[in-house]
Amino acid sequence: MADRIDQQLSNYRLVSLLGQGGYAEVYLGQHVRLNQQAAIKVLHAHLTQAEAEHFQQEAQTIATLVHPGIVRVFDYDVQNGVPFLVIDYAPNGTLRRRYPKGSLVPLPVIVSAVKQVADALQYAHEQKFIHRDVKPENMLLGRRQEVLLSDFGIATIAHSTSSLNVSAEGTSGTLAYMAPEQIEGHPRPASDQYALGVVVYEWLGGERPFEGSVSEVMAQHLSMPPPSLRERMPAIPPEVEQVVLRALAKAPKARFASVAEFATALEQASQRALTPTAQLASEQLDLSPTAATSYETVAVAPSPLVLPTETTPSADLPVEALEPTVYPGSAEPKGHDTPQSGATSKTPPQGQVVAAAAAVVSPPLGPTMPVQRKARRISSMSAALLIGLAVVIIAGGVLGSVSLLAHFGVIGAQSAATTPVRGGTWTDGLIRDPDSLIPNGTAQTSFITGLVDQALYLPLFYGDAQGVIQPGAASEIPTVQNRGISADATAWTFHLRPGLVWSDGQPYDARDVDYTWKLWLNPKFGASTTQPYNLITSADVSPDNLSITFHLTRAYAPFLSLWVDGGFAPLPAHHFSRMAPEAIKKSPDNLNPQVTSGPFMMAERVPGDHYTLVRNPRYYRASAGLPYLDKVIFRVADPDTILKDLQVGTITSSWFLDIRKVQAYQRLSKYTLVTPPTKASFEALYFNFHNQVLASHLEVRQAMAIAIDHQALIEAIPQGLAGPLCTDHGSFYHPGYDLNANCPVFDPAAAKKLLEDNGWVKGPDGVRARGNQRLEFEYSTALSANPYRTAVEAIIQRDLKAIGIQLDIQNYPGDKFFGPFLNGGKASPPSGAVAGRYDIAEYVNDYGYDPDDSSVLSCDQIPPKGQNFTFYCNHALDALYQQELATVDPGVRQQIFNQIHKVYLTDFPFIVLYSPLSPSIVRKGTHNYQPSPFEGETANIWEWWCDHGKC
């Protein structure tokens, strides 16, 4: 335990306790002579001489595993009977800490991690090693955020050392991730693939396939198929689900031939899902015949969750195997080309404007449908295990009169239906009244308006939970191939679905779209934004009124994104054309729309209290039973009142949470915190290039970039509310997101050397200077938007002080910060910081549905023309912006964005700190609540439903 601190094992002094588990304690060790740190894994044991020799033999074998994706064992010994291993120190924690239980991990991040882990496992398998305990806790993050697999062979050593004091938490392998054959005592390489499949399932769906007590989870691994991922998360692409479920096949031979093949299949499926070809439902991943034999049709109902108690241990706890680990004598896996970590993704087809995933089709109303599962005979070993466990559990008084067969899932039990149920009233918490419910009618409360308008209006397109644009009123996504976009990208054609109507029964067609853009550009209306709608020179409506073609002054790749979600939905021309443009937002329709097109209609408005919406019987998907809810109530309340409402259970969900009170939300046992599965925004510090020192000395900006401990910033924010990011494109963006970006690596020593090599010398106060120039700057932000910025500022101030740069922190209210402070751009002189000046600013940013980021640093966006608050102007960068704006080919745009990222990560006009996530909360027993990373929680409000039709 911690009493080993300051002890010396071999050449290492134990500095601090990093963690402990069932097998061992892990300490940070400092070499007594070298400036070198390592992790020291001290096993729970006191060995005899014979056992010590055996331990050293096993450790020597493990130490032969040398691979960039494996945490290396480079020394080992037994001291006073205590065995220990000296291993690489991975400073950034585990993937379990990065993504706590319940997290939804972005698909590109999953693919990257799986490729790295699979590469390590493939190497180990070729060396005749089986890991046996693959799980997020054993996936570490290295100094460059690479994924490293740890604890190779620890389970083997633990099992084969008789005097090892293995606790209840530390037996051979962790049951929740354990393959059926490993439970039966016959692990093989395919067992590691199964465990990795469980990890992917958990990251995609927010929970593992099998939960419950040890006996329940064991029985399910042995005989029950994993629940459908898409029933839990309909936005998951079907081809991705197929790959994961194949890796989770009960029979090892039904899985992929190797773990490398599994990783490749997952990557290919994700690429297909993020490209237009995934729209074809018939395009399924080719599975081998062995994965589709001997099926029987059964009705499957999910087992109720049994929480761990003293008599029903959790399946999170590792479970000892029945036999020692032996590598099966079967033939070696066939050779496969293992993709290297960070391999370039395939370029989507030319001319496609967005990479759209297959549309989510809601299941029809009706009785629960039977599903097919693989028939699997329970072996005699499994039967003995189950009977033995049953005796123990019944003796402990857990099962009582419950049927043993039903308990183990051999026969079904009644449970809540998984088919959507119509009915119910859903109450959602808003923090204030909107200023307008007219699409594109307000900038002040657009974040509120968008949530309500998504329920009231049918947009041409909408963004799903993954941030992928899907057709709404439009019948398809325009591309160059389907002639929706001209070759020069100056003409865009939207085809509308036939038969659409407004809530009053009048036709909803291209004439409404034509009316809307003209209204928005009319200054008398006062639209929230007129740019870049002002690129439209004219529009042609087809004779059947089902198509509209826009003609633009120049190519503009983000044009589609201007028409996404209810906040930018077309307006009813037949209704509003009767009014003067300047009268529309002054009319009752402004906050109580009488004619709508979405899944709901306005029924009641009580200012300052609530807005009640009811089902729209003329919604275009009404024949499919949508929306499922009868009624939605948007209740207006401040965050404190929302928390009280949650505590008493009077609201169903809310997107407006006080993140300072995350622990209070986590204590709400009837609710679940939800974060979007992908990231759209980024928090960054921006340099004011009016400051001569910052503008003229690249080495100063570069030193800051590598002196900031980004992991410490993330850890200063409640777990799950921030993630790593080093470019301005989070995983929301395809194209845009760059897995292979050359991110700055935290290296204070290198930062100091960079400054020293360029003549920056520390003065008596520890601040560096060169001539009359001093590295002292004003640092400012707006705390009102993010209360954790105080902690973040303190860490950045500490990190930069360590290399001789002083930050003087002065923060401002949001209206002043984003008003005269940033726009004024008045910087401190070279001699040092001056209070009230702007040298470095921190704030959050995003770009909407399109990855175009020219607004941040374009020369023509310097205030007062735009929001380039850095006042940085780089004409080569401007040329790249113009190129990405002029092409709709996502592959070409991705290449351009990669070049843009290289400029950002070399010249550092700003430094991305992390990616913040906006959590929301929803009551348990609700379904399909899938917030979009940009639009917010109501992205798919028409698909929400509640158990038994009661919310």
Layout of helices and strands:
Layout: E1 8-9, E2 12-20, E3 24-31, E4 37-43, H1 49-62, E5 73-79, E6 82-87, H2 95-98, H3 107-126, E7 139-141, E8 147-149, H4 154-160, H5 180-183, H6 189-205, H7 214-223, H8 229-232, H9 238-247, H10 259-273, E9 295-298, E10 371-374, H11 380-395, H12 404-407, E11 425-430, H13 446-456, E12 461-463, E13 469-471, E14 491-495, H14 510-521, E15 536-541, E16 547-552, H15 573-576, H16 581-584, E17 600-606, E18 610-615, E19 631-636, H17 639-648, E20 653-654, H18 662-666, E21 671-674, E22 682-687, H19 692-696, H20 698-707, H21 710-715, E23 722-723, H22 748-757, E24 761-762, E25 768-770, E26 773-774, E27 776-781, H23 789-801, E28 806-809, H24 814-824, E29 840-845, H25 854-857, H26 875-886, H27 890-907, E30 910-916, E31 920-923, E32 926-927, E33 945-946
Parallel strand pairs: 11-19, 11-20, 27-28, 27-29
Antiparallel strand pairs: 1-2, 2-3, 3-4, 4-6, 5-6, 7-8, 9-10, 12-13, 14-16, 15-16, 17-18, 18-19, 20-31, 21-31, 22-29, 22-30, 23-30, 24-25, 25-26, 32-33
Helix pairs in contact: 3-6, 3-10, 6-9, 7-11, 9-10, 20-22, 26-27
